[in-house]
Write a structure and sequence with these properties.
Length: 157
């Protein structure tokens, strides 16, 4: 076999496999809690317990993400998943995520808003995230829009 034939055969097999391969939507079903971990020169670090449903028959590795975060109807800024996230096949389980925001990702009023929210002493807050995640299965990546809004338990440090 010539190398051109091998490359063409590999290309055809790849196209056939990828056209049969369908990634079903992964959903954020519940955000159980939000915990403020750290505010430093690196930015803001938040831990959150999130239930993610993966209806697919294969594990998905999250390789990129970006979310707009709103708390009590006040825009906080952008955040990214700062920890490894592998979502097991056919699962509906909670995952502990570290969400990171650099100073440039935070809105100008983020810190005063967060101080005001924590000073109220309430143990619940309205939490909204919307954005995207990029999941990877084998060599195939897919960008998926995600969002969730609801009341969440607030844990301070």
């Amino acid at each position: 076999m010539t190398s051109y034939f091998r490359i063409a055969l590999l290309g055809i097999i790849t196209i056939l496999l990828s056209s049969c391969f369908k990634i079903e939507e992964v959903e954020i079903k519940e955000i159980k809690s939000v915990k403020l971990l750290e505010f430093s020169d690196k930015g803001l670090l938040v831990e959150s317990s999130v239930r993610i449903d993966n209806p697919n028959n294969y594990d998905i590795k999250v390789v990129d993400s970006e979310f707009n975060v709103t708390v009590n109807n006040k825009k906080i800024g952008k955040a990214r998943i700062g920890s490894d996230l592998n979502i097991p096949a056919s699962s509906k389980e909670f995952h502990t995520l570290l969400l990171q925001s650099s100073h440039s990702d935070l809105s100008a009023s983020a810190i005063p808003n967060l101080i005001a929210i924590t000073a109220t002493g309430k143990d619940k807050l309205d939490f909204k995230v919307d954005g995207f995640i990029v999941g990877k299965v084998w060599w195939i990546s897919k960008k998926v829009d995600v969002g969730h809004e609801g009341e969440v338990d607030l844990k301070l440090f």
